[in-house]
Amino acid sequence: MRSAFISQIHSAWQLFLENFDWMAWNLFLALIPLVLSVILFILPRFSTGQYKLNSLVWGVGFLVFMAFLPNAPYVLTDLIHLIENIKENDSTWMIFLVLFPQYLLFTLIGFTAYVLSVINLAKFLKSQGWQQPQIVTVELVIHALCAIGVYLGRFLRFNSWHIITELPDLINSLIYDLIGKKPIIIMSFMFMILTILYWIMKQVTLGIILRIKQVNNQ
User: Fold this and answer.
1) pLDDT band at residue 193, thresholds of 50, 70 and 90?
2) How far apart are CA 73 and CA 147, in angstroms?
3) Could you write out the DSSP letters of every residue in 91-160?
4) Could you list the residue ranges that cross the membrane (predicted)?
């Protein structure tokens, strides 16, 4: 009985480790835009003059931010690996106690990084005098650009750094590979998913932040 239990624990651990490396890498890429959003959009708002980025550095940082931002919602497409894992595993308890929690946590962290990144940008724009309709428009444009970025990453296998290392091929794909019926349908669907999930997660996130502030002020 004890040996069977230990064997099951070992199998569960091995199953967890099968996905750990690529999940850790994808989360690392997803967290890059979140870190950049803090540096570019949060710190300047609360600085006392000691922290200041010149316009050129800020502009380059913003481009890097936009280049890496699609990596955050990209985690949603990694759910295809969950289907593969389920097909490869015939143990129901392994699926429900290992795979589902692992993928849920992975997806939640990655997409939350996306939501927080865009929220930080929206707050920065508001601090610069932008009106709410303008900010919503920016958010929708970002969702559209990220939908394109996710398609480029998932189906055409481009990465963020290919903007520098494989720019001609990337431009060629943007011109010729994204105008077909299938890419447009997929990117439109991705845009709708990002828009809906972002709105839901934004309300939840802002509600949690507001609650934390209320608790701290008590």
Assistant:
1) very high
2) 8
3) -HHHIIIIIHHHHHHHHHHHHHHHHHHHHHHHHHHHHTT--HHHHHHHHHHHHHHHHHHHHHHHTS---T
4) 22-43, 55-73, 93-119, 140-164, 184-201
**Residue 44's pLDDT band (cuts 50, 70, 90):** confident
Judge whether 137 lies within some domain. Answer: yes
Give the H/E segment covering residue 9.
Answer: helix 2-37
pLDDT tier for residue 164 given thresholds of 50, 70 and 90:
confident
Residue 123 C-alpha from the chain's centroid: 18
Range of the domain at 28: 2-211
* Domain annotation covers residue 65: yes
Among the listed residues 138, 140, 119, the one whose alpha carbon sits nearest the alpha carbon of residue 192: 140
> Using N-to-C axis directions, what is the helix angle for 132-154 and 181-217, rounded to 10°?
130
Domain count, the chain: 1
Residue with tokens 């990337």: 170
In angstroms, the CA 145 to CA 117 distance is: 14
Q: What is the pLDDT of residues 138-161, one digit of tens each?
A: 999 999 999 999 999 998 888 888
Is position 10 within any domain? yes
